[in-house]
Amino acid sequence: MIPLLFAVQVLLVFSFALMAYLTLTDRLPPNRYFGIRTKRTRSSPEVWRQVHRGFFPFALAIAFVALVGLVPMALTADSGPGLFIALWVADGLIVVLALVGTVVAQRGVGKA
Questions:
Q1: Which tens digit of pLDDT belongs to each residue from 1-12?
Q2: From CA 87, how far away is CA 61, in angstroms rounded?
Q3: Domains of the chain, residue spans
Q4: What pTM value is reported for the model?
Q5: For all residues of the chain together, what is the average pLDDT?
Q6: 3-state SS track over 43-82
Q7: Could you list the residue ranges that cross the membrane (predicted)?
Q8: Distance (Å, rounded) from C-alpha 38 to C-alpha 106?
Q9: What residues contact residue 60 under an 8 Å CB cut-off, 6+ apart?
C-alpha cells in the first residue's frame, strides 16, 4: 500500500510543479488533458492563459504541500495511523487549495 501512496503523492508533486512551470513560461496551451478545464477557460485562449496565471501561486502551494506529504512516507517504513492521518491532512489541503485556486483564478479574469 505504501509504494502506491508514495507514487500517487509523487505524481501530485510532479503534475502541479509541471503546471506551474508551463504556466510561468507561457507554454501551457489550451488542451483537453492538462490544466484547468472549465467552460470559461475553454471559451478562449486568452481566458485560458489568464486563469492559469491566476492559479500559478496555488499550483506552487499544492506542489509544496504534496512534497511535504511525502516526508512521513520517506522517513518511516511503518504504515501506522500517523502516516495515514498526515496524508489525509496533506491531500485534504491539496483539494481545498485546488478548489479555492480555481475559483479565485476564474474570478480574476479581466480584472488585471
A1: 578 888 999 999
A2: 16
A3: 2-107
A4: 0.89
A5: 91
A6: CCHHHHHHHHHHHHHHHHHHHHHHHHHHHHHHHCCCCCHH
A7: 6-24, 55-77, 83-105
A8: 9
A9: 16, 17, 20
